[in-house]
Design a protein that fits this description.
Layout (H helix, E strand, L loop, with lengths): L1 H23 L15 E4 L4 E6 L2 E11 L4 E10 L10 H14 L4 E4 L3 H6 L3
Length: 124
């Protein structure tokens, strides 16, 4: 019984090590391949997508509405993944991300959530 428990414990340790190594090599978390001026767009599950630009990650949710013969994305709501890491985020970065969103969804209106909303609403 003791040997079976030790084998089970060793198997769990190996599985944990494998999971950690696989997560570290996940390309979704690796942004070192991004050019400084490139916005990376990634589709995610269901109605979500992510944008990465200069180390800033945003998650967007798409809202669909029916048009004449198809469904189109009419609204996109964007949230910062780590709002505390947005120091240095500028209005130009915001415009670059909006340009990428509109290239994928030309008929969509874009709504930004806190704290980006404050950047949009401040006077220039």
């Amino acid at each position: 019984m003791k040997i079976l428990f030790l084998l089970l414990l060793a198997g769990a340790a190996i599985l944990l090590f494998y999971t950690v190594m696989k997560a570290r090599k996940n390309p979704a978390s690796d942004m070192s391949h991004l050019d400084a001026e490139e916005v990376e767009y990634r589709e995610q599950y269901d109605h979500h997508f992510s944008l990465s630009y200069r180390g800033y990650r945003m998650i967007g949710k798409k809202y669909l509405q029916p048009r004449e013969d198809r469904f189109e994305v009419t609204k996109v709501v964007m949230n910062a993944v780590q709002p505390d890491r947005l120091s240095g985020f500028s209005r130009n970065d915001l415009y670059k991300m909006e340009e990428c969103i509109l290239s994928h969804f030309p008929y969509a209106s874009i709504e930004w959530k806190h704290p980006i909303k404050e950047l949009v609403l401040t006077e220039i």
